[in-house]
Amino acid sequence: MTQLGLFAGPQAGPAGLRYIDDFVEAAAEGDLIGRIAALPLQRFQFGAFEGNRRVASFGYRYDYSLQRLAEAEPIPDWVLPLAHRVEAWAGLVGGSVRQVLCTEYDAGVGIGWHRDKPHFDKILGLSLGSSCKFRFRRRSGDKWERHTLEAQPRSLYMMGGEARSQWEHSIPPVEARRYSITFRTMKQA
Predict the structure, then answer these.
(1) What's the CATH number where 97 sits?
(2) 159 lies in which domain range?
(3) Taking the CB of residue 98, how many other CB atoms lie within 10 A of it?
């Protein structure tokens, strides 16, 4: 496991970023990919724009038209044991994961620079099917501080602290079809 800790320097990655290889076994990965592929995935909608990745949201979804969170279908039963395992790895209380996003990226599809919506707190992502470059950046004066994490298939990352609040992240176009399951906790009111 790679732990990018509280006092990590820029070469080590953003503070609050954690990563572990082989979070799930190859057989479980195949099953998860099959389950995601069988979902009624829709192209990602943000306002009048449509992304190339296909997604299904559970628990909550962000409605870009209304600019607020909206309830979505409940988190599927097949995701719950994995969500509990993710929570345990992250040191979170059981039931902390309140939103799940299943995503399919075809070859040549990525996601631009962004921060997840402020309603969410911890962001955890399980990478499936193929590797990706998980890029981070934050402004430092008139330059950008940058870090790239090579997320391997079956790996899990967590963004909290500065990695979540001060850094943007993106994924350049992937070379082969990739799936991910993103687990989000909610900010306390």
Answers:
(1) 2.60.120.590
(2) 2-7+15-186
(3) 18
0.85 exceeded by the pTM?
yes
The predicted-structure confidence for 3-47, as pLDDT tens digits, reads as follows 444 444 444 799 999 999 999 999 999 999 999 999 999 887 665
**Amino acid (one-letter) located at 77:** D
**CA dist list (Å): 103 to 36, 134, 145, 165, 166:** 8, 15, 28, 23, 24
Q: Could you tell me if 14 and 167 are in contact, meaning their C-beta atoms sit under 8 angstroms apart? A: yes
Structural domains of the chain, count: 1
Rg (CA), the chain: 16
